[in-house]
Amino acid sequence: xxxxxxxxxxxxxxxxxxxxxxxxxxxxxxxxxxxxxxxxxxxxxxxxxxxxxxxxxxxxxxxxxxxxxxxxxxxxxxxxxxxxxxxxxxxxxxxxxxxxxxxxxxxxxxxxxxxxxxxxxxxxxxxxxxxxxxxxxxxxxxxxxxxxxxxxxxxxxxxxxxxxxxxxxxxxxxxxxxxxxxxxxxxxxxxxx
Length: 193
Known about the structure:
The protein is an all-alpha fold. The protein is built from nine helices and no strands.
């Protein structure tokens, strides 16, 4: 397994060197290799396909612009997902700031205060949509750790590096996310858990 990982890293480093020298085909190959993982991380933030696709596009644009900053020997996937995470956080902050400014002048009666759980319950027609709804209800950090571990299949140490926290913190967040998901999913599934 470790030898296979080294071979994959070697292939990625070769592609990255080609990108540095202007090879567009190598850039397309890197994009194809990692776009799903970038999308999965972006989707955890926004739960919206269009927003996640915008982040994917912006991530790979940044990779192309900053490829000379990547140092051989580092984990490319971690570097890439760190860029994605930072872009998501920036975008999220900008949106929250805009929403705050838009809502400042509104009368309280104009704000949307509908119960989000009511409409989500009706959408939960299968296990995937139920799980998606429940993952959305996790705290931001728990959601990120859960998705990076379960969907992107990263190791705890890799997630810790991406999020810039201790490995123990990542393990704790993953454990809490799993516990919370079990609690959130159980009303939908009854006593099956």
